[in-house]
Amino acid sequence: QRKPAYDKRTGKKYEYHVITIPRAISEDSQYPFRVGEKVKISIEPKGKRIVIVKVKEKSSGKKK
Predict the structure, then answer these.
(1) Which of 30, 33, 22 is nearest to 41 (CA)?
(2) What is the pLDDT along the chain (64 residues), one digit of tens a residue?
(3) Is residue 19 a contact partner of residue 41, using CB atoms and an 8 Å limit?
(4) What DSSP character marks residue 14?
(5) Which label site among 1, 14, 27, 53 has the fewest CB atoms less than 10 Å from its CB?
(6) What is the structure's pLDDT at 13?
(7) Can you tell me whether residue 57 is helix, strand or coil?
(8) Do the beta carbons of residue 17 and residue 40 sit within 8 Å?
(9) Which of 19, 12, 15 is nearest to 4 (CA)?
(10) The pLDDT value given to residue 64
């Protein structure tokens, strides 16, 4: 189980972070993400790149 993120400035805990993408990039037709999608972000220090990958929702397998 993942621990919630902690904001040192405000003292609040968050389950997810919200990131802002510049408008010019988000309006590009090749940009693969939509508002509200859950993504995983990692940073490659050697390559100086930010890698963003879509997170697939896991279903519980329970029927209603």
Answers:
(1) 33
(2) 566 677 777 787 777 666 777 888 777 778 787 777 788 888 888 878 888 888 876 655 555 5
(3) yes
(4) E
(5) 1
(6) 76
(7) coil
(8) no
(9) 15
(10) 52
